[in-house]
Design a protein that fits this description.
94 residues; single chain; mainly alpha
Length: 94
């Protein structure tokens, strides 16, 4: 085999290997992009379908507000006396 034939043979072999590698890389990228696009579409489809449970959240907020108000109404006199006693005690420290 002469030098020119050797160069031509190896150039084609290397070129073919590079072409095959690039083809695999392009196919892998296309597959990855397709997967990401599918995942993105599925995520936003679920997000659009999830309207949220607004009445449920309103009920939770109203019940929490009602509980805090009820507890505060019952505990306010005792909390006021505790605060007043502690402040009076702080005034006595001076």
């Amino acid at each position: 085999m002469q030098i020119e034939d050797w160069r031509t043979h190896h150039t084609h072999t290397i070129g073919g290997a590079m072409k095959a590698l690039l083809t695999k890389l392009v196919k892998a990228e296309i597959s990855l992009r397709d997967g990401l696009t599918r995942t993105h579409k599925n995520f936003y489809a679920r997000l659009r379908d999830e309207r949220g449970d607004v009445p449920g959240w309103v009920l939770v907020v109203l019940m929490t507000t009602g509980l805090v108000t009820a507890i505060w109404t019952i505990a306010a006199p005792r909390l006021t006396s505790i605060l007043k006693n502690s402040l009076d005690a702080m005034n006595g420290i001076r």
